[in-house]
Specification:
Blueprint: H1 14-18, H2 34-52, H3 59-66, H4 70-76, H5 80-102, H6 113-133, H7 135-142, H8 150-176, H9 186-206, H10 213-225
Helix pairs in contact: 2-3, 2-5, 2-7, 3-4, 5-6, 5-8, 6-8, 6-9, 6-10, 7-9, 8-9
Length: 228
Protein backbone atom coordinates (compact mmCIF):
# COMPACT_ATOMS: atom_id res chain seq x y z
CA UNK A 1 0.00 0.00 0.00
CA UNK A 2 1.39 3.37 -0.94
CA UNK A 3 2.26 5.62 1.93
CA UNK A 4 -0.32 8.35 2.30
CA UNK A 5 1.11 11.84 2.01
CA UNK A 6 0.76 13.66 5.25
CA UNK A 7 -0.37 17.30 5.14
CA UNK A 8 2.32 19.80 6.06
CA UNK A 9 1.78 21.22 9.53
CA UNK A 10 0.28 24.71 9.53
CA UNK A 11 2.21 27.53 11.12
CA UNK A 12 0.71 28.87 14.29
CA UNK A 13 -0.59 32.38 14.15
CA UNK A 14 0.03 35.02 16.79
CA UNK A 15 -3.51 34.45 18.01
CA UNK A 16 -2.84 30.70 18.43
CA UNK A 17 0.32 31.35 20.42
CA UNK A 18 -1.36 33.71 22.85
CA UNK A 19 -4.65 31.90 22.98
CA UNK A 20 -6.77 34.73 21.70
CA UNK A 21 -7.21 37.49 19.10
CA UNK A 22 -4.54 40.13 18.84
CA UNK A 23 -5.37 43.78 19.53
CA UNK A 24 -5.67 46.01 16.51
CA UNK A 25 -2.56 47.89 15.56
CA UNK A 26 -2.46 51.41 16.89
CA UNK A 27 -3.54 54.04 14.42
CA UNK A 28 -1.16 56.93 14.08
CA UNK A 29 -2.22 60.48 13.36
CA UNK A 30 -1.93 61.64 9.81
CA UNK A 31 1.32 63.50 9.22
CA UNK A 32 0.67 67.22 8.80
CA UNK A 33 2.79 70.25 8.12
CA UNK A 34 3.66 72.12 11.36
CA UNK A 35 1.31 75.01 10.60
CA UNK A 36 -1.56 72.64 9.78
CA UNK A 37 -0.91 70.63 12.93
CA UNK A 38 -1.05 73.76 15.07
CA UNK A 39 -4.38 74.73 13.53
CA UNK A 40 -5.74 71.24 14.12
CA UNK A 41 -4.71 71.33 17.77
CA UNK A 42 -6.12 74.83 18.24
CA UNK A 43 -9.41 73.59 16.79
CA UNK A 44 -9.34 70.72 19.28
CA UNK A 45 -8.70 73.14 22.15
CA UNK A 46 -11.50 75.44 20.98
CA UNK A 47 -13.91 72.51 20.95
CA UNK A 48 -12.99 71.65 24.53
CA UNK A 49 -13.45 75.27 25.63
CA UNK A 50 -16.84 75.55 23.93
CA UNK A 51 -18.07 72.36 25.61
CA UNK A 52 -16.45 72.46 29.05
CA UNK A 53 -14.62 75.75 29.55
CA UNK A 54 -11.00 76.85 29.66
CA UNK A 55 -10.35 74.96 32.89
CA UNK A 56 -10.85 71.67 31.04
CA UNK A 57 -8.09 72.37 28.54
CA UNK A 58 -4.93 70.35 29.15
CA UNK A 59 -2.22 68.96 26.93
CA UNK A 60 -3.61 65.47 27.47
CA UNK A 61 -7.19 66.55 26.66
CA UNK A 62 -6.10 68.32 23.48
CA UNK A 63 -4.03 65.30 22.43
CA UNK A 64 -6.98 62.96 22.96
CA UNK A 65 -9.42 65.17 21.10
CA UNK A 66 -6.96 65.74 18.29
CA UNK A 67 -6.18 62.05 17.95
CA UNK A 68 -2.47 62.48 18.64
CA UNK A 69 -0.03 61.80 21.46
CA UNK A 70 1.04 64.37 24.02
CA UNK A 71 4.55 64.67 22.52
CA UNK A 72 2.92 65.76 19.26
CA UNK A 73 1.13 68.56 21.11
CA UNK A 74 4.35 69.58 22.85
CA UNK A 75 6.08 69.72 19.47
CA UNK A 76 3.65 72.51 18.54
CA UNK A 77 3.15 74.22 21.89
CA UNK A 78 5.64 74.32 24.70
CA UNK A 79 2.98 74.47 27.40
CA UNK A 80 -0.73 74.74 28.08
CA UNK A 81 -0.34 78.50 28.62
CA UNK A 82 1.30 78.93 25.22
CA UNK A 83 -1.48 76.94 23.58
CA UNK A 84 -4.19 79.06 25.24
CA UNK A 85 -2.41 82.31 24.39
CA UNK A 86 -2.29 81.36 20.72
CA UNK A 87 -5.90 80.18 20.82
CA UNK A 88 -7.05 83.52 22.22
CA UNK A 89 -4.95 85.38 19.67
CA UNK A 90 -6.46 83.40 16.80
CA UNK A 91 -10.06 83.65 17.96
CA UNK A 92 -9.96 87.38 18.71
CA UNK A 93 -8.40 87.96 15.28
CA UNK A 94 -11.27 85.98 13.75
CA UNK A 95 -13.81 88.09 15.63
CA UNK A 96 -12.17 91.33 14.54
CA UNK A 97 -12.14 90.21 10.91
CA UNK A 98 -15.80 89.17 11.15
CA UNK A 99 -16.81 92.56 12.56
CA UNK A 100 -14.85 94.31 9.82
CA UNK A 101 -16.62 92.31 7.13
CA UNK A 102 -19.99 92.92 8.77
CA UNK A 103 -19.64 96.70 8.62
CA UNK A 104 -18.01 96.66 5.18
CA UNK A 105 -21.11 98.30 3.72
CA UNK A 106 -20.86 101.17 6.19
CA UNK A 107 -20.23 104.52 4.53
CA UNK A 108 -19.81 108.03 5.78
CA UNK A 109 -22.39 109.41 3.38
CA UNK A 110 -25.45 107.94 1.71
CA UNK A 111 -27.31 109.41 -1.21
CA UNK A 112 -30.50 107.42 -1.04
CA UNK A 113 -33.01 107.05 1.76
CA UNK A 114 -33.49 103.42 0.76
CA UNK A 115 -29.79 102.70 1.27
CA UNK A 116 -29.87 104.42 4.65
CA UNK A 117 -32.86 102.52 6.01
CA UNK A 118 -31.56 99.18 4.72
CA UNK A 119 -28.12 99.71 6.18
CA UNK A 120 -28.78 98.43 9.71
CA UNK A 121 -30.63 95.22 8.68
CA UNK A 122 -27.92 94.52 6.10
CA UNK A 123 -25.21 94.96 8.72
CA UNK A 124 -27.04 92.58 11.03
CA UNK A 125 -27.47 90.00 8.27
CA UNK A 126 -23.75 90.00 7.54
CA UNK A 127 -22.86 89.77 11.21
CA UNK A 128 -25.21 86.86 11.94
CA UNK A 129 -23.84 85.01 8.91
CA UNK A 130 -20.36 85.47 10.37
CA UNK A 131 -21.55 84.15 13.74
CA UNK A 132 -23.05 81.07 12.11
CA UNK A 133 -19.85 80.37 10.17
CA UNK A 134 -17.66 80.05 13.30
CA UNK A 135 -20.07 79.33 16.17
CA UNK A 136 -17.54 78.06 18.72
CA UNK A 137 -15.56 81.28 18.37
CA UNK A 138 -18.58 83.42 19.18
CA UNK A 139 -19.62 81.20 22.07
CA UNK A 140 -16.56 82.62 23.81
CA UNK A 141 -18.30 86.00 23.66
CA UNK A 142 -22.00 85.32 24.16
CA UNK A 143 -22.16 82.40 26.58
CA UNK A 144 -20.76 81.96 30.11
CA UNK A 145 -17.61 79.85 30.01
CA UNK A 146 -15.59 78.70 33.00
CA UNK A 147 -12.12 80.11 33.49
CA UNK A 148 -12.17 82.85 30.85
CA UNK A 149 -8.72 84.52 30.91
CA UNK A 150 -8.75 88.29 31.64
CA UNK A 151 -6.98 89.01 28.35
CA UNK A 152 -9.91 87.49 26.43
CA UNK A 153 -12.42 89.60 28.37
CA UNK A 154 -10.41 92.71 27.50
CA UNK A 155 -10.23 91.86 23.81
CA UNK A 156 -13.93 91.05 23.63
CA UNK A 157 -14.75 94.42 25.21
CA UNK A 158 -12.48 96.10 22.68
CA UNK A 159 -14.24 94.32 19.81
CA UNK A 160 -17.61 95.54 21.08
CA UNK A 161 -16.29 99.10 21.21
CA UNK A 162 -14.98 98.79 17.66
CA UNK A 163 -18.38 97.61 16.44
CA UNK A 164 -20.15 100.48 18.21
CA UNK A 165 -18.45 103.16 16.11
CA UNK A 166 -19.75 102.15 12.64
CA UNK A 167 -23.03 101.06 14.23
CA UNK A 168 -23.41 104.53 15.73
CA UNK A 169 -22.85 106.14 12.34
CA UNK A 170 -25.51 103.90 10.79
CA UNK A 171 -27.96 104.68 13.58
CA UNK A 172 -27.28 108.41 13.15
CA UNK A 173 -27.98 108.27 9.42
CA UNK A 174 -31.17 106.30 10.05
CA UNK A 175 -32.37 108.85 12.61
CA UNK A 176 -31.67 111.68 10.20
CA UNK A 177 -34.27 110.19 7.85
CA UNK A 178 -36.94 109.86 10.52
CA UNK A 179 -39.48 112.63 11.13
CA UNK A 180 -39.71 114.07 14.63
CA UNK A 181 -36.54 112.24 15.75
CA UNK A 182 -34.59 115.33 16.74
CA UNK A 183 -34.92 114.57 20.44
CA UNK A 184 -33.90 110.90 20.16
CA UNK A 185 -30.59 110.19 21.90
CA UNK A 186 -28.48 108.53 19.20
CA UNK A 187 -25.93 107.21 21.68
CA UNK A 188 -28.55 105.47 23.78
CA UNK A 189 -30.26 104.06 20.69
CA UNK A 190 -26.92 102.72 19.45
CA UNK A 191 -26.40 100.90 22.76
CA UNK A 192 -29.93 99.46 22.54
CA UNK A 193 -29.43 98.29 18.94
CA UNK A 194 -26.09 96.73 19.84
CA UNK A 195 -27.76 94.89 22.73
CA UNK A 196 -30.41 93.61 20.32
CA UNK A 197 -27.69 92.38 17.95
CA UNK A 198 -26.00 90.53 20.80
CA UNK A 199 -29.31 88.92 21.75
CA UNK A 200 -29.85 87.92 18.12
CA UNK A 201 -26.40 86.32 18.03
CA UNK A 202 -27.17 84.30 21.18
CA UNK A 203 -30.44 83.07 19.68
CA UNK A 204 -28.74 82.00 16.45
CA UNK A 205 -26.04 80.15 18.38
CA UNK A 206 -28.32 78.55 20.95
CA UNK A 207 -31.10 77.32 18.66
CA UNK A 208 -30.36 78.02 14.98
CA UNK A 209 -33.30 75.93 13.79
CA UNK A 210 -35.91 77.81 15.79
CA UNK A 211 -34.25 81.22 15.49
CA UNK A 212 -32.85 81.27 11.99
CA UNK A 213 -31.36 84.41 10.51
CA UNK A 214 -34.38 85.11 8.30
CA UNK A 215 -36.71 85.14 11.31
CA UNK A 216 -34.53 87.62 13.17
CA UNK A 217 -34.09 89.85 10.13
CA UNK A 218 -37.86 90.01 9.71
CA UNK A 219 -38.09 91.82 13.04
CA UNK A 220 -35.30 94.26 12.17
CA UNK A 221 -36.92 94.92 8.81
CA UNK A 222 -40.14 95.78 10.64
CA UNK A 223 -38.31 98.14 12.97
CA UNK A 224 -36.10 99.91 10.45
CA UNK A 225 -37.65 99.51 7.02
CA UNK A 226 -41.30 100.26 7.62
CA UNK A 227 -42.58 103.59 6.44
CA UNK A 228 -42.51 106.29 9.11
Amino acid sequence: MANAKQAAPQKKTAADKTGGPQPAKRKYAKRLQPADRREQLLDAALGIVAEAGFTSVSIAAVAERGGVTRPVVYDSFGSRDELLEELIERETARMAAAVERSVAGDATTTDSRSATTEELPAMLARFLAEVRSIPDTWRLVYFPIDGVPPVLRERVAKSRDELRTPLGRAVGRWLAEQPDADDVDAEVLTQVVQGAIQTAARLVLDDPEQFDIARILALFDYLFLREA
